[in-house]
Design brief:
Strand order of the largest sheet: 2-1-3-4-5
Distance between the termini: 7 Å
Structural class: alpha/beta
Radius of gyration: 13 Å
Order of helices and strands: EHEHEHEHEHH
Strand content: 15-25%
CATH architecture: 3-Layer(aba) Sandwich
Helix content: 25-40%
Shape: globular
CATH superfamily: Response regulator
Largest sheet: 5 strands, parallel
Number of domains: 1
């Protein structure tokens, strides 16, 4: 079973995303983190994983997480799940080949269905 990681400093955001994943049948292998540094230590050890990543977090933001992944030569597919509607952030996300989708919070059923094709491998 491949893993799905949720990396967001807001527990409620992780809770909502996890519940939507569970409703779609992803009941195993979904792990959430509120500390991105802890998440990084775990995901770099994985062979295959899908990551939902927030951008605005204290201590280590999403960009720093993406840069750390790049330095470790890890390219797990990442779905950015952020409250930022900034065109700058959306354009910057395209600079990272591992970012497969940019979704503006809050996650809901409609947005979840838009990313469902990315979940088929998990």
């Amino acid at each position: 079973m491949n893993k799905i990681y949720l990396v967001d400093d807001q527990p409620i955001s992780n809770f909502i995303t996890k519940k939507l994943l569970q409703l779609e049948g992803f009941t195993d292998g979904v792990i959430d983190f509120t500390n991105p540094a802890e998440a990084l230590d775990v995901v770099v050890e994985e062979e295959k994983a899908l990551i939902f990543l927030d951008l605005n977090m204290p201590e280590m933001n999403g960009w720093e997480f993406l840069d750390a992944m790049r330095l470790r030569k890890k390219s797990h597919p990442i779905i950015i799940l952020s409250s930022s509607t900034s065109n700058f952030d959306q354009a910057k996300a395209k600079e990272y080949p591992c970012v497969i989708k940019y979704v503006v919070k809050p996650m809901n059923k409609k947005k979840f269905l838009e990313i469902s094709e990315h979940l088929k491998a998990y």
